[in-house]
Every structure is written in structure tokens, then in C-alpha cells.
Amino acid sequence: MNSAVQVCWEKAARYFDVEEKYVYCTKDRYVIDPKEAVDLIDENTIGICSILGTTYTGEYEDTKAINDLLVERNLDIPIHVDAASGGFVAPFVKPDLIWDFRLEKVVSINVSGHKYGLVYPGVGWCIWRDPKFLPTELIFNINYLGADQASLTLNFSRGASQVLGQYYQLIRLGKSGYRAIMFNLTKTADYLAASVQKMGFLLMSKTRGEGLPLVAFRLNPDDGHLFDEFAIAHQLRQRGWVVPAYTMAPHSEGLKMMRVVVREDFSRSRCEALIADIKLAMETLGKMDEQKVKEHKEHIKQHGTNTGRHKKMNQQFTDEKHSLQGKTGKTHAVC
């Protein structure tokens, strides 16, 4: 799997004692390399993860290329598609993109309802290609709720409000409603992407529906700015915007970046306001001399840029070495 996976994959591997094999990003490639992924397969490999919409740049990984390589090499390895973000976007914006059960090696897909499924947090879905791919050891039959039921969840007792919320949205919006919303979000993201490029930023995300409706960007190192992306994020926070700044996944030369996720309530007028505030932040920071920028960076270090909390909290957990963050300093993008 890609080293840019969401932290839930690291947790799952840790909890179930599964060895992870990572395909690392580079300064020019932020998604999995299909050939490199397939080359990592050995006799103990249980599957390959392909991400439909990475948390860092929103790009869709090439599931079809992975599938075709597995078929070409006659390798009986299943693919799980992590479509947490893209599962409710790609089918409506890029219906011709082949990433799902049309590929013979794809056996399971997960999607989050609380992202572009347009439901409040707490609901996610997993779909299997065929019942034979769901191990019977994970199914527990119970009858103490008044009828025979099959249970396969891992989260135990919880309310059904999120399921009802998803059901309501699917019935209310339907395909046409989701399509209209996702196209609108894509148009807004494209407008924002074009605007930050005009300001001199380097665009790291895709446009025109080739990825999620988000805009990932970074400063052009050739412009010689004294400030960095964290300083811009701090300035934007003073204007009421929480735009995360973080470093890319391991082995991508510590690239700093920022990301704006375009949500359903992010209208064109709000987009214009954000663009104006980014310009203002750039102008404000651009007027600072080297000493002022240094003082500004120290201030940011003392006061958490993205959360507003002091960075010295939870000191007892800072020395762990089992995660990608502990091993490499990887930051985890907000999901």
C-alpha cells in the first residue's frame, strides 16, 4: 500500500498483527506505483490496497493498472479499494473510470458516508464482491434481539442514526442529486485551483474531476519566500479559516503543503473570500523582513497552527516508534 495511507491502515495492521509493505511517495509522485506494488508481492501477501482519493492530494490511484499486472503475472492476490473519499465522487463525476468490481481482482470496497456521502460523522460502508470473500469466521449469528441476525461489525453497540441519515440522503438526492452536487464541488475546486496557481503556488492535486474536489498546493521554492506554508496557515486562521499545513508522506523530501477540501457548503462566494484572504496572507508575510519571519515561526511553534492548542500536550506518548509518524515523521492528513 501507499505510504500516504490514512492512519486507520496502520492501526489495523497493528491490531491484527499484519506486516505492512509500503510503496513510498517521491517528490514527483504522490500515489502508489502499480509495478512497484506488485513487485513487493511474496508468498505471504494477503492483499493490495488501492486508494480512490488519497488524503494528501486527493488523487485516484490506478487500480486498473494494478489489476492488469496481477492478471498478467497470474498472481492470485485480491485488491481492496479504499474509496473512503472517492466512492461517492468518482461514480458521478468520472463514471468511465474503472476502479471497482468491473476489475476481476477487486474483491472489496469501503466508502465513508460522512465524507462525500453527505452524512454526519460516524458511518462507513464496506461492500464485498461476493459472499465467498467474506470469511465465515467473521460472521456471528445471534437471536437475542428477537430474531435471527448475522453480525459482522467491529464497533459493537451504537445508534442507527447515521444509517438513517445515509438512507435519507440516498432516497432524497438519488443519482441525479449526487451528480449535481459533485459536479458543483468539482467546478468550485477547479476555480480555487486556478486562483492559487495565479498567485504563484504549485498545484499538487488534480483538476477537472481527475481527483477529489480538493485543492492541495505549496509554495514555489524558486520564488525565494522567507516564510513557509505553516506561516500562511497561521495567518489564515486569524481570518477564521482552518486550512491545514503539513508535510507530505515519507520519502517525498519533506515537501510542505496546504490543502483545502471543498465541502457541499463551500459556495462560490466563500471561495472568493478564501482567495482574498490567501492573497492578504501572502501580502502580509511578504512585507516581513527576515527577523520578523523568524519571530513569526517561533510564535507558530509555541502555539499549534492547526488546532490552536499548545504543542506540548500528551508528552508521555511522543516517543513511540511503531507508526509511520514515529519512524519517519510522517504527518497524517485530516480525513
Strand-helix topology:
Layout: H1 7-15, H2 34-39, E1 48-51, H3 63-72, E2 79-82, H4 90-93, E3 106-112, E4 124-128, E5 140-142, E6 149-151, H5 161-198, E7 202-203, E8 214-218, H6 229-238, E9 245-247, E10 256-261, H7 268-286, H8 290-302, H9 324-328
Parallel strand pairs: 1-2, 2-3
Antiparallel strand pairs: 3-4, 5-6, 7-8, 8-10, 9-10
Largest β-sheet summary: 4 strands, mixed
- Class inferred from helices and paired strands: alpha+beta
H/I helix tally: 9
What is the CATH topology descriptor of the largest domain?
A: Aspartate Aminotransferase, domain 1
Task: Please characterize this protein's 3D structure.
- The chain has two domains: 7-139 and 156-166, Type I PLP-dependent aspartate aminotransferase-like (Major domain) (Aspartate Aminotransferase, domain 2, 3-Layer(aba) Sandwich), CATH 3.40.640; 184-328, Aspartate Aminotransferase, domain 1 (Alpha-Beta Complex).
- Helices cover 34% and strands 13% of the residues.
- The protein has nine helices and ten strands.
- The protein has helices spanning 7-15, 34-39, 63-72, 90-93, 161-198, 229-238, 268-286, 290-302, 324-328, and strands spanning 48-51, 79-82, 106-112, 124-128, 140-142, 149-151, 202-203, 214-218, 245-247, 256-261.
- The relative contact order is 0.12.
Short characterization:
This protein starts with 6 loop residues before the first helix and ends in a 7-residue tail after the last helix. Helix content is 34%, strand content 13%.
